[in-house]
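Lesson 9: reading folded outputs for more than one chain in a single document. The general rule is that every protein is listed as its sequence immediately followed by its structure tokens, and records are never interleaved. Here is the first one.
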Amino acid sequence: MAISPLKAMNGERVVVLIFVLRVLSSLPLALLPHALSLSLLSLFSLVVEIRVDNSPSLFKTRPGASSGIILGAVTLPTVMLSKLIQLSRAVSLQQIEIGELEHMTMQFWAASACSCGVLIFLFIVAWCAANKKNPHFSCSVWDAKFSLSCVILYSAVCCISLATISHTGFNTALKLLWLLCHGFATVKLIQHLLSTFPFCASIGEANLVTSGLVLYFGDMLACTISKVCRLLIPPELVSIRYGIKRSEIGIVIQGVLLGLLIFSAVFKFLIHLWEYFWGANNSESRERKEIWRSLIFLTSLGFIMIAVAPSWMMIVLDFDVHPVPWIFEFIFSEPFKRLSLCIYWLVLIYASVLRFYNISKNSKIERILLRKYYHLLAVLMFLPTLIYQPKFLDLAFGAALAVFLVLEIIRVWRIWPLGQLVHQFMSAFTDHRDSDLIIVSHFSLLLGCALPIWMSSGFNDRPLTPFAGILSLGIGDTMASMVGHKYGVLRWSKTGKKTIEGTAAGITSVLAACSVLLPLLASTGYFLTQHWFPIFIAVTTSGLLEAYTTQLDNAFIPLVFYSLLCL
């Protein structure tokens, strides 16, 4: 039976469509093919979400969350399109080279290909499930025809757009193959994620994570191949950002993350190898086996992070010295400021963690409210640093992410002697969105603050964009939760907990923070080009998304807010 379009629209879907329409309304005519492709992707994702929501349980997703397919599918492509709009202004002002714009065009199409691949996969799964349940249904036939039309039109627009930035047909074919690999890799990765970590994420959250990973490591792979064998990759496929214009800090962060990815695979292989040859010997005590596992962990981690990862960094960028000494040289280039910041951070973290951990064990305060204090802690830690030491904060975010990943590996594998202690400590701050398999809240908060800052590197004519995560999570989300919990009466929906009072408080607090931040940035030398009406639209849209979505807001809201601030 067909579903009325009006009945199919809920609050989250309406806000997402408003978000997409806001970005599309800001596009120049030169980006019309990109607008058409994003429109088709949005319609296709809406059809898929409605179909999946009305099908039997297809995947073991996070309880209490909607599928979030449309939000997960359009977020990354819309972020890339917003960045593309921003770089188009830079090209018109002759502040960047055309190669950087072409690179961002490829990133947009790669992000779109990742989402499109996942949507096709989800539609096929839902189609097969519905066919098994009821072989006679005309609605699914209409859905299939509409979806197939969207995919065909999307593919045609993609080919036309890529042909305009390619010199030969071979280059166009090579780029299409590159996009196809992105889509295939994302599908395989989301299948692995949903099966390996059941009940840990919604489909939309899994789509965002897998698309982001494929996009990020695909960029690293293209960078590596272009450096090792430039003759095999056309120059326009790999932009100038892979060369001399890529910063040392960006390469260090990518190298560390690549090293941890390699380490996790190598460590798992070594453990299986060790258990195969020596694990059968039950005469050894359990404690001795744990010590051996710890030694394997530390040895492999140290070798990869000191030898393997820096070797990759030196391949893709010409460092004057080894990357490890370079990091220390960078920190001590301004020793007083940067070491003072490190001491300031350590004092804040120690005092806050000790205080909140004791409260979490002895208090009946809801975990979700307790964790909002860490959002405020992020404001205290990151806001002053972003204004006065932005490059150091870039590196610090990379270091913090690496530490979080190592601690999560220690917790999951129960590496002696810290594994159980880390698990007990982290469990004190979990809520219904976390599980014993993987704890994501601290990652989402860190990345929610870091991603807008990392993406704002290079040309940026909108000074508020680096602050998107800090403002939306540290101030807006925190005030919305606290005010809504204490004073909220009018709820947005009968089944949800979000209140109108909380949303109004979140929007007002972010606008107030912007009114303070803009003059402060102007006093430090920023050239302000943002006007209040676009800022108001961005703050209101992201605030409404926080009110309606059941997805992990730390992951989506900063990206949505960042995209709207770029316009």
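And here is the second record, again sequence then tokens.
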Amino acid sequence: MSQSDVVSQTFRALVESADRKFGRVRDLPLHGNRSQNHHSFHKVFKAYMRLWKYQQENRTKLVESGLNRWEIGEIASRIGQLYFNQYMRTSEARFIVEAYVFYEAILSRRYFEGVKVKDLGVRFKELRFYARFLLVSLIFNRTDMLNLLVDRFTHLVDDCKTNFRETNFREWKLVVQEIVRFMKADKAFTNIRPLRYCAMFDSHPTSLPYVARFHAKKVLKFKDAILTSYHRNEVKFAEITLDTYRMMQCLEWEPTGSFYPKRPVVFNDHSGASIDHSGASGVIDMNFAADLTDPTLPPNPRKSVLYRPSVTHLIAVIATICEELPPESIMLIYLSASGKAGISNVSQLENSGGSKKSSNNNVLSRISRKQNSSTPEYHINGTKESSDYYENYLWFGPRGNGGPNNLYPGDIIPFTRRPLFLIIDSDDSHAFKAERGETAALFLSPLRPAFKDQSSADTTQNGSQFTFFLTAPLQAFCQMVGFTSSDSDSDFYSDAEKIISTSFSEWEVILCTSTSLDLVWAQVLSDPFLRRLILRFIFCRCVLSLFCPPEDSEQYLPVCIPHLPVSVSPKSELVQSSVRRLANHLGVAEYFKCLT
């Protein structure tokens, strides 16, 4: 047996060993068992690094033995997939960076394109590579790369349909449609500012000393979050919906300006550039990942993103994470789903037999109500009797209206034994006013969205308005009043962001110096992510209270439990003045009562 044969056999054995380990890690649950997951990841990562190093050291002999370029691309793709899966388990930024580095190298070195392959199996590998790279670029917020990948991916699917006419590529066409729809829904105002926590926008020098000095009797650390949404026909890509994507981004750190360098995306298929594709090059600049990582930032809170979970699976994940939650920590649960009847948008409400009612100032969309409203009747103290914990619910199910698909307020009560920050975004969110047990922090969305332009009210096209306010308040404000990014330049929006930033700084001082701030809020105020959510809630509530007619206030206003101080209520002159400044700056003050 020649030396080349020995090298080839060793290489194949390493491939098989790594793939077996990869299969075991891929099938592990994404949630819980941190130590076990870390150990398993380390083993499979070590196997692939050994394989990668071996092919680099023996590349010439492997090429002589018939190694194809796409085989190197498949190994790199597996490593990228491994990193991405670990990112989804841990939310550690370095893993999404490493995944991006490997996928970008595959694309730039054209591992799947070096030879015109007519093998259907290889084409499917290439299609899967593009789909995975699209998801990584989306989460990594690489807009230029996304645009390039969508164009490449679309052409690849069309080429596969032409060359493999007997094969059905309908599923891949749906993938193309999904990403195009997602990017269309998320493209407005994308250049204003990142959704992630950014020191430039979210750390306010004026109020920083007050935040630094603030100390409650008990301080909780934000460690874990569960994010899920379940609506009919909602905007999504792969297993990431638009609402959960926005929340994911909102709960991560944005590196400082010197990081995430905007390397130009230049991969011209027809430029004639002298790129050597004759050999199976396996060199990837793994040091580039260090250039994309900001070592000054603390770790991201771990996020468990559930795609269309069953109620039993959702409860099981909550229980697992509660069990593993470190002492003196708090868990955030974000639930976006339709209420009682499984109605997910305004157009469905109107088709359900409801009557229309326009606002007095003709600003609000004509949002219909059901003649027999499902809004629960609450007692004077804003709560319900314990027998009502299982009367209203969120709806997690593909069809029908059966009990197994219903998540009741009472289902959450056992988990309030641990500190809980609960965000309910639903047309039946106020049912969770009945939630009892240990006191939890609650944000409950309005029962109805409010827009100047009725077409914007369709959550299946634009996502939830409440979630948008919590994750991108200026963009949500502009969408509500029908103000588009084409209406003005970047400096104009930068000034609008400064108005919001100044307001948030003022409100931070109020919260940090308030003597009436409930302990539930005080114990999380030191956390930058949760504090930012509180400030954005204050903004959202005041905006909607001034935008909506008073007789419909309960339908269109969000609720927080327990109450925040009166000094940051919608009736506060200081809070209203902030909305006034923003509305005047954008030239939309006539849409708000008491502002003109």
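What the second record shows: The radius of gyration is 26 Å.
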